[in-house]
Amino acid sequence: MVVLGVALALAGCRSGGEGSGPTTTGGPPATAAPSTTAVGAYGSPVLLGRLDPAVDESSGLAASRRNPGLLWTHNDSGDDPVVYCADRQARSCGTWRVTGASARDWEGMAAGPGPRAGQSYLYLGDIGDNNGNLDQVVVYRVPEPAAPATPGAGRGATEAAERIPLRYADGPRNAEALLVHPTTGDIYVVAKEPLNAVVYKAGPGGVLDRIASLSVGIGLVTGGDISPDGRRVALCTYASGFELELPAESAGDFDAIWRQPLRPVALPPRTQGEAIAYRLDGNALLTTSEQPPAPLQEVERR
Description:
About 0% of the residues lie in helices and about 40% in strands. With about 300 residues, the protein is mainly β.
Protein backbone atom coordinates (compact mmCIF):
# COMPACT_ATOMS: atom_id res chain seq x y z
CA MET A 1 0.00 0.00 0.00
CA VAL A 2 1.26 3.47 -0.87
CA VAL A 3 0.93 5.74 2.15
CA LEU A 4 -0.43 9.25 2.41
CA GLY A 5 2.46 11.44 3.55
CA VAL A 6 2.56 14.67 5.49
CA ALA A 7 5.04 16.33 7.79
CA LEU A 8 3.96 16.64 11.40
CA ALA A 9 2.63 20.09 12.18
CA LEU A 10 3.09 21.27 15.75
CA ALA A 11 1.09 24.45 15.38
CA GLY A 12 -1.58 23.03 17.69
CA CYS A 13 0.97 21.76 20.21
CA ARG A 14 0.16 20.55 23.70
CA SER A 15 0.24 23.11 26.47
CA GLY A 16 1.34 22.52 30.03
CA GLY A 17 4.14 20.19 30.26
CA GLU A 18 -27.39 9.38 7.57
CA GLY A 19 -28.58 6.23 5.42
CA SER A 20 -29.85 3.18 7.22
CA GLY A 21 -26.45 1.71 7.92
CA PRO A 22 -22.88 1.10 6.80
CA THR A 23 -21.93 0.05 3.30
CA THR A 24 -18.63 -1.00 1.79
CA THR A 25 -16.45 0.02 -1.12
CA GLY A 26 -14.38 -2.44 -3.12
CA GLY A 27 -11.01 -1.85 -4.73
CA PRO A 28 -7.55 -1.11 -3.40
CA PRO A 29 -6.84 1.12 -0.39
CA ALA A 30 -6.71 4.84 -1.07
CA THR A 31 -3.38 6.51 -1.80
CA ALA A 32 -2.21 10.09 -2.28
CA ALA A 33 0.75 12.38 -2.77
CA PRO A 34 2.21 14.09 0.30
CA SER A 35 1.55 17.70 1.28
CA THR A 36 3.11 19.96 3.86
CA THR A 37 1.02 23.00 2.98
CA ALA A 38 -0.82 24.36 5.99
CA VAL A 39 -4.49 25.16 5.60
CA GLY A 40 -4.60 28.95 5.68
CA ALA A 41 -8.38 29.21 5.74
CA TYR A 42 -8.59 29.02 9.54
CA GLY A 43 -8.15 31.96 11.90
CA SER A 44 -6.86 32.28 15.44
CA PRO A 45 -8.20 30.00 18.19
CA VAL A 46 -10.90 31.29 20.52
CA LEU A 47 -11.75 29.92 23.97
CA LEU A 48 -15.56 29.72 24.11
CA GLY A 49 -15.77 28.49 27.69
CA ARG A 50 -15.06 25.56 29.98
CA LEU A 51 -17.28 22.50 30.22
CA ASP A 52 -19.15 21.24 33.26
CA PRO A 53 -16.69 19.68 35.76
CA ALA A 54 -18.53 16.37 35.30
CA VAL A 55 -16.90 16.27 31.86
CA ASP A 56 -13.44 15.47 33.16
CA GLU A 57 -12.17 13.44 30.19
CA SER A 58 -13.88 14.78 27.09
CA SER A 59 -13.07 12.13 24.50
CA GLY A 60 -15.74 12.71 21.85
CA LEU A 61 -17.51 15.75 20.42
CA ALA A 62 -20.36 16.33 17.96
CA ALA A 63 -22.42 19.31 16.85
CA SER A 64 -26.09 18.68 17.48
CA ARG A 65 -28.30 18.35 14.39
CA ARG A 66 -31.57 18.31 16.32
CA ASN A 67 -30.64 21.23 18.58
CA PRO A 68 -28.78 23.79 16.41
CA GLY A 69 -26.12 25.67 18.36
CA LEU A 70 -25.67 22.93 20.96
CA LEU A 71 -22.97 20.27 21.27
CA TRP A 72 -22.63 16.77 22.64
CA THR A 73 -19.65 15.21 24.39
CA HIS A 74 -18.83 12.18 26.52
CA ASN A 75 -16.13 11.05 28.90
CA ASP A 76 -13.43 8.46 28.33
CA SER A 77 -13.50 5.09 30.12
CA GLY A 78 -14.63 5.11 33.75
CA ASP A 79 -17.89 7.01 33.31
CA ASP A 80 -21.42 5.70 32.94
CA PRO A 81 -22.98 5.53 29.43
CA VAL A 82 -23.86 9.22 29.51
CA VAL A 83 -23.81 12.04 26.95
CA TYR A 84 -23.41 15.65 28.03
CA CYS A 85 -24.96 18.63 26.29
CA ALA A 86 -23.35 22.08 26.18
CA ASP A 87 -24.06 25.39 24.48
CA ARG A 88 -21.53 27.54 22.62
CA GLN A 89 -20.35 29.08 25.87
CA ALA A 90 -19.72 25.56 27.22
CA ARG A 91 -22.59 25.91 29.69
CA SER A 92 -24.33 22.66 30.54
CA CYS A 93 -27.67 21.87 28.89
CA GLY A 94 -27.97 18.62 30.81
CA THR A 95 -27.03 14.95 30.70
CA TRP A 96 -28.73 11.91 29.20
CA ARG A 97 -28.12 8.26 30.01
CA VAL A 98 -27.95 6.18 26.83
CA THR A 99 -30.56 3.46 27.27
CA GLY A 100 -29.33 -0.07 26.61
CA ALA A 101 -25.67 0.92 26.24
CA SER A 102 -22.60 0.18 28.31
CA ALA A 103 -19.43 2.26 28.38
CA ARG A 104 -16.36 0.05 28.42
CA ASP A 105 -14.08 2.53 26.65
CA TRP A 106 -15.97 5.22 24.73
CA GLU A 107 -13.44 7.06 22.57
CA GLY A 108 -15.34 8.94 19.88
CA MET A 109 -18.75 10.14 18.76
CA ALA A 110 -20.45 11.52 15.68
CA ALA A 111 -23.84 12.79 14.59
CA GLY A 112 -25.48 11.45 11.47
CA PRO A 113 -28.51 9.82 9.84
CA GLY A 114 -29.99 6.47 10.71
CA PRO A 115 -32.97 4.18 10.08
CA ARG A 116 -35.68 6.83 10.53
CA ALA A 117 -35.84 9.43 7.78
CA GLY A 118 -35.50 12.96 9.10
CA GLN A 119 -34.21 11.81 12.49
CA SER A 120 -30.71 12.72 13.65
CA TYR A 121 -28.73 10.08 15.51
CA LEU A 122 -25.73 10.07 17.82
CA TYR A 123 -23.09 7.42 17.20
CA LEU A 124 -20.97 6.47 20.21
CA GLY A 125 -17.79 4.51 19.60
CA ASP A 126 -16.84 1.95 22.25
CA ILE A 127 -13.70 1.40 20.18
CA GLY A 128 -10.83 1.78 22.64
CA ASP A 129 -8.65 -1.34 22.81
CA ASN A 130 -5.36 -0.42 24.47
CA ASN A 131 -4.21 -4.03 24.61
CA GLY A 132 -5.26 -4.82 21.04
CA ASN A 133 -7.02 -8.04 21.96
CA LEU A 134 -10.75 -7.49 21.38
CA ASP A 135 -12.44 -9.68 18.79
CA GLN A 136 -15.00 -6.96 18.21
CA VAL A 137 -15.79 -3.38 19.14
CA VAL A 138 -19.18 -1.68 19.34
CA VAL A 139 -20.80 1.48 18.03
CA TYR A 140 -24.07 2.54 19.64
CA ARG A 141 -26.57 4.44 17.50
CA VAL A 142 -29.29 6.33 19.34
CA PRO A 143 -31.84 8.97 18.27
CA GLU A 144 -30.52 12.34 19.31
CA PRO A 145 -32.40 13.72 22.34
CA ALA A 146 -34.12 17.08 22.39
CA ALA A 147 -32.22 19.44 24.67
CA PRO A 148 -33.18 22.79 26.22
CA ALA A 149 -32.17 25.82 24.19
CA THR A 150 -30.98 27.66 27.30
CA PRO A 151 -28.63 26.51 30.07
CA GLY A 152 -30.41 24.36 32.59
CA ALA A 153 -30.68 20.99 34.18
CA GLY A 154 -32.08 18.98 31.30
CA ARG A 155 -31.73 15.36 32.29
CA GLY A 156 -33.16 12.02 31.36
CA ALA A 157 -32.70 8.86 29.36
CA THR A 158 -32.46 8.47 25.61
CA GLU A 159 -34.51 6.15 23.48
CA ALA A 160 -33.12 2.62 23.25
CA ALA A 161 -29.75 2.52 21.55
CA GLU A 162 -28.98 0.14 18.70
CA ARG A 163 -25.84 -1.90 19.24
CA ILE A 164 -23.68 -2.22 16.10
CA PRO A 165 -20.89 -4.79 16.61
CA LEU A 166 -17.85 -4.37 14.37
CA ARG A 167 -14.69 -6.39 13.79
CA TYR A 168 -11.55 -5.48 11.86
CA ALA A 169 -10.84 -7.56 8.80
CA ASP A 170 -7.12 -7.66 9.65
CA GLY A 171 -7.27 -8.20 13.41
CA PRO A 172 -7.83 -6.08 16.53
CA ARG A 173 -6.90 -2.40 16.55
CA ASN A 174 -6.92 0.36 19.12
CA ALA A 175 -8.86 3.42 17.90
CA GLU A 176 -10.21 6.73 19.15
CA ALA A 177 -11.57 8.38 15.99
CA LEU A 178 -15.13 7.61 14.86
CA LEU A 179 -16.57 9.34 11.78
CA VAL A 180 -20.03 9.03 10.21
CA HIS A 181 -20.91 10.34 6.76
CA PRO A 182 -23.68 12.96 7.08
CA THR A 183 -25.74 11.60 4.17
CA THR A 184 -25.01 7.89 3.75
CA GLY A 185 -24.46 7.02 7.41
CA ASP A 186 -21.29 5.12 6.49
CA ILE A 187 -19.14 4.44 9.55
CA TYR A 188 -15.39 5.06 9.52
CA VAL A 189 -12.83 4.30 12.22
CA VAL A 190 -9.26 5.58 12.21
CA ALA A 191 -6.91 3.33 14.16
CA LYS A 192 -4.62 4.94 16.74
CA GLU A 193 -1.31 3.73 15.35
CA PRO A 194 2.10 5.43 15.19
CA LEU A 195 3.25 6.98 11.92
CA ASN A 196 0.56 5.48 9.68
CA ALA A 197 -3.00 5.83 10.94
CA VAL A 198 -5.16 3.27 9.15
CA VAL A 199 -8.67 4.17 7.97
CA TYR A 200 -11.38 1.50 8.14
CA LYS A 201 -14.86 1.53 6.70
CA ALA A 202 -17.72 -0.61 8.01
CA GLY A 203 -19.20 -2.97 5.47
CA PRO A 204 -21.69 -5.87 5.35
CA GLY A 205 -21.64 -8.15 8.36
CA GLY A 206 -20.04 -5.46 10.50
CA VAL A 207 -16.59 -5.96 8.98
CA LEU A 208 -14.23 -2.99 9.13
CA ASP A 209 -12.24 -3.03 5.90
CA ARG A 210 -8.92 -1.23 5.61
CA ILE A 211 -9.26 1.43 2.89
CA ALA A 212 -6.43 3.94 3.46
CA SER A 213 -3.34 4.76 5.48
CA LEU A 214 -2.53 8.30 6.65
CA SER A 215 0.94 9.41 7.68
CA VAL A 216 0.69 11.94 10.53
CA GLY A 217 4.35 11.98 11.56
CA ILE A 218 4.95 10.92 15.13
CA GLY A 219 1.37 11.63 16.16
CA LEU A 220 -1.49 9.28 17.00
CA VAL A 221 -4.94 10.09 15.62
CA THR A 222 -7.26 10.69 18.57
CA GLY A 223 -10.34 12.24 16.96
CA GLY A 224 -12.05 13.01 13.68
CA ASP A 225 -15.16 14.34 11.99
CA ILE A 226 -16.75 14.76 8.54
CA SER A 227 -18.10 18.20 7.68
CA PRO A 228 -21.90 18.48 7.48
CA ASP A 229 -21.71 18.93 3.69
CA GLY A 230 -19.60 15.77 3.31
CA ARG A 231 -16.77 17.64 1.58
CA ARG A 232 -14.06 17.71 4.28
CA VAL A 233 -12.54 15.50 6.95
CA ALA A 234 -10.84 16.83 10.08
CA LEU A 235 -8.48 14.72 12.17
CA CYS A 236 -6.54 15.52 15.32
CA THR A 237 -3.67 14.02 17.26
CA TYR A 238 -2.74 15.00 20.79
CA ALA A 239 -0.65 17.81 19.30
CA SER A 240 -1.83 18.57 15.78
CA GLY A 241 -4.73 18.95 13.40
CA PHE A 242 -5.22 17.97 9.76
CA GLU A 243 -7.85 18.36 7.08
CA LEU A 244 -8.62 16.65 3.79
CA GLU A 245 -10.94 18.11 1.17
CA LEU A 246 -12.91 16.32 -1.53
CA PRO A 247 -12.44 17.90 -4.96
CA ALA A 248 -15.57 18.97 -6.81
CA GLU A 249 -15.00 16.40 -9.55
CA SER A 250 -15.15 13.60 -6.93
CA ALA A 251 -18.34 14.80 -5.26
CA GLY A 252 -20.07 11.46 -5.90
CA ASP A 253 -17.22 9.37 -4.49
CA PHE A 254 -16.59 10.30 -0.88
CA ASP A 255 -13.84 7.73 -0.40
CA ALA A 256 -11.74 9.66 -2.91
CA ILE A 257 -11.14 12.05 -0.02
CA TRP A 258 -8.58 9.63 1.42
CA ARG A 259 -6.47 10.17 -1.72
CA GLN A 260 -6.26 13.92 -1.18
CA PRO A 261 -3.37 15.81 0.48
CA LEU A 262 -3.52 15.71 4.25
CA ARG A 263 -2.95 19.35 5.22
CA PRO A 264 -2.01 20.66 8.67
CA VAL A 265 -4.46 22.91 10.55
CA ALA A 266 -3.36 24.99 13.54
CA LEU A 267 -5.65 23.90 16.37
CA PRO A 268 -5.95 25.59 19.79
CA PRO A 269 -3.46 24.49 22.48
CA ARG A 270 -4.79 21.42 24.27
CA THR A 271 -3.41 19.53 27.26
CA GLN A 272 -4.64 16.19 25.90
CA GLY A 273 -6.72 16.68 22.81
CA GLU A 274 -8.89 13.71 21.88
CA ALA A 275 -11.94 15.29 20.28
CA ILE A 276 -12.63 17.46 17.26
CA ALA A 277 -15.87 18.36 15.46
CA TYR A 278 -17.11 20.66 12.75
CA ARG A 279 -19.54 23.35 13.78
CA LEU A 280 -23.00 22.69 12.37
CA ASP A 281 -22.52 25.20 9.57
CA GLY A 282 -19.16 23.62 8.68
CA ASN A 283 -17.37 26.96 8.98
CA ALA A 284 -15.37 26.22 12.12
CA LEU A 285 -13.64 23.42 13.99
CA LEU A 286 -14.33 22.81 17.68
CA THR A 287 -12.02 21.03 20.10
CA THR A 288 -11.98 19.94 23.73
CA SER A 289 -9.42 18.34 26.02
CA GLU A 290 -9.36 15.37 28.37
CA GLN A 291 -7.84 17.39 31.20
CA PRO A 292 -10.34 19.31 33.39
CA PRO A 293 -11.57 21.96 33.39
CA ALA A 294 -12.09 21.00 29.76
CA PRO A 295 -11.88 23.98 27.39
CA LEU A 296 -14.30 24.32 24.49
CA GLN A 297 -12.32 26.03 21.74
CA GLU A 298 -12.95 27.07 18.16
CA VAL A 299 -11.07 28.02 15.02
CA GLU A 300 -13.14 29.62 12.25
CA ARG A 301 -12.63 29.42 8.52
CA ARG A 302 -11.74 32.82 7.11
